[in-house]
Amino acid sequence: MNIKTFFHKITSRYLWGHLAAMALILVLLFLLVAYGLDFYTNHGKVIEVPDVVRMSYDDAEETLSDAGLKIVVSDTGYVKSLPADCILEQSLSPGERVKPNRIVYVTINSANAPMLSIPDVIDNSSFREARMKLKSMGFKLGQPQFIPGEKDWVYGITCRGKQLAAGAWVSVEDLLILQVGDGRRDLNDSVAFIDPVYEYEEEEIDAEKPVESGEKDDFEVVTEPEEKTENI
């Protein structure tokens, strides 16, 4: 290829037309991506999260939908003083500024008090250990009932006058009464106290015991032999 042919090709309208078309396509792609991304991410649009706590679920759903947000129930709780299906908590704080179509996760109030299972603390732990474990699980405890037994040992649990066993299901609203030993033995227990007798004391007792009439002892009397006198 000579120089004339080379300059003829690089100055060809066909070549520069293709280069111009490629550049235009690149510019259009850049603009499409930039504006499309802004549109997809709602760039420049923010929504202030409304406060839906204490609202019913239906009212909260309507309020959030009108604001351009979605609602999803993530958990349930229980507050006795509030109605069922009432919103207890929301994940996005009220007043927070977010993009449209964000999801607000809420915790709603259950219609019934949750049930909990009694752990294995009966005749298996001290009063302090059982009290801490039950309270950490959410149980409500009343004043303990002291009964004869080992001090501070848990012998039973009652609820509404009924004796409970490990594994029984109880409402968190019910009051549990721990039956705890007061350090006294049961009045029905009888204990016979016998003074110990040691070996050396038995020997002393036998030595001091008098010999009754007609009763022979085992001692043999030994007399010294008489001395014989020799005749001189």
Properties at a glance:
three-stranded mixed sheet, disordered C terminus, five-stranded mixed sheet, 232 residues, alpha/beta
Quick take:
The chain is an alpha/beta fold.
The helix-strand sequence is: HHEHEEEEEHEEEEEEH
SS field, number of helical segments? 5
Low-confidence stretches: 228-232
Distance between the termini: 179 Å
Q: Main sheet?
A: 5 strands, mixed
Radius of gyration: 49 Å
Proportion of beta-strand residues = 15-25%
Rounded mean pLDDT is: 80
Q: What does the model show?
A:
With 232 residues, the chain is of the alpha/beta class. It has 5 helices and 12 strands. It has helices spanning 3-10, 13-40, 57-66, 127-137, 199-208; strands spanning 47-48, 70-77, 87-90, 97-98, 103-109, 115-117, 140-141, 145-147, 154-159, 162-164, 169-171, 175-181. The strands form 4 sheets. Strands 7, 8, 9, 10 and 12 form a 5-stranded mixed beta sheet that branches. It has a 3-stranded mixed beta sheet with strand order 2-5-3, covered by helices on one side. It is elongated, with a radius of gyration of 49 Å.
Compile the SSE list and pairings.
Layout lengths: L2 H8 L2 H28 L6 E2 L8 H10 L3 E8 L9 E4 L6 E2 L4 E7 L5 E3 L9 H11 L2 E2 L3 E3 L6 E6 L2 E3 L4 E3 L3 E7 L17 H10 L24
Parallel strand pairs: 2-5, 7-12, 8-12
Antiparallel strand pairs: 1-4, 3-5, 6-11, 9-10, 9-12
